[in-house]
Fold this sequence. Notes:
Elements: H1 3-13, H2 15-58, E1 62-83, E2 88-102, E3 106-120, E4 123-138, E5 159-164, E6 175-178, E7 181-188, E8 195-199, H3 205-208, E9 213-224, E10 226-229, E11 235-242, E12 247-251, E13 261-263, E14 266-274, E15 283-285, E16 296-300, H4 306-314, H5 317-335, H6 341-362, H7 367-390, H8 393-415, H9 420-438, E17 442-443, E18 447-448
Parallel strand pairs: 1-10, 3-11
Antiparallel strand pairs: 1-2, 1-5, 2-15, 3-4, 4-9, 5-8, 6-7, 6-9, 7-8, 10-16, 11-14, 12-16, 13-14, 17-18
Organism: Flagellimonas taeanensis
GO cellular component, one term: plasma membrane
Keywords: Membrane, Transmembrane, Transmembrane helix
Amino acid sequence: MTLQKRIGNWLKNSISAKMITVGFLILILLVPLGFVDDLIRERGQRQQEVISEINSKWGEEVIINGPILKIPYHQYIEEKVFDEKTKTFLKTEKAVRHEAYFFPDELDINSNVTTQPLERGIYKSVVYTSNSELKGTFSNPSFKELEVKDEDILWDKATIVYMVSNLKGIRNTVAINFNNQQYDLKPKFDNAYMNTLESDFIVNLEEIQNRTLDFESKITINGSNRLQYVPIGRETVVAMKSNWHSPSFNGNFLPDTEGKKISKNGFEAQWKVLETNRRFGQSFFDHLPDLTEFAFGTEFLVPVDDYQKTSRTSKYGFMIIGLTLLVFLLIQISSKISIHPFQYLMIGLALVLFYTLLISISEHKNYLFAYVVSGGAIVSLITIYSRSILKNTKFTLLVLGSMLGLYTFIFVIIQLEDYALLVGSIGLFVILATIMYTSRKIDWSGQLED
């Protein structure tokens, strides 16, 4: 027998040759599977770009810090001026203007948030409109910390300040009723992330500053993603109500467990933050720092979208392709049915096609519908194809059952979050045990035991 015939017989009859061929085909199929992963990632990035564009036009995340009482004051620095006549240096004092910022004693915020979807083509974003009512009190502003004299405090230049992250989204004229006097707040140019809204000078603050000062304000603002407040009150209480069903409470403080309600129709939550819960006091002098790191509130979380689910599904592509081709290989070895490498390749390409069908259908329907349709189409295609290859009803039903089991198993894992690893590990153990059991009678030298 010539060497060529011996090699041909080995490739035709050897189990090792068949396993090497199938393994090589699986490696080749990783190439189109990688292209599919890139496609899913690209479509997901495109979705995020469109959502970001929608949100930027409607209104991005909202952080509100205020109201804050701003009072200018003078401090003096010593200067030396040379006198030409006396040829000596004269000491003088120069007044330098600074600002003091005082936070309210009580700050009660009642926020009613209405969400709605915005669509552009096949992409969808969730945005909101928040109606926030802010009430509270200021106590006597104290300059004792700096020992500033009363005559150096510019009471007639005092104003009310709000710091807001998203001026574009504001939908009403922001005003504050301070000590029964109405003040409109106007924007001040600033390149900082938190934009400034400031009132006109407060009337008669020097005469009224020794008593408790009440305030009330309303802000209607469009936003997206998050709504947060900075707890600047000595006691800050925030109550939030919304029709959004999937809130994620984030920031530096979580809402109270009592009274928190989440249902498919919306949620209700309440926070209470005291001065002792924060790392800053009730006043700042000369400079108001960025306090957004202490903000808290709600992220209007979009549940795991279809691109994320499709991406997670594609990560199991290697396992599905490998196990499916392994089933055909075991059938071929145990039954002596001849399956050509080209037929293995066609089956593998059909399994890769499942993911392109899944992502394309899920862009127009939901993930469940897309998974059932694309999975059903691929299982049907391979089952019909295997019938023509195997020409045996028992083996065809085995292929059908194994594929239905695999796709069902993957779908269950995708739906789980906390138990995905546990269920996946148990499932893989069962699959491995099944393969070991069914292959126990195979004579790997090339014959099947009786």
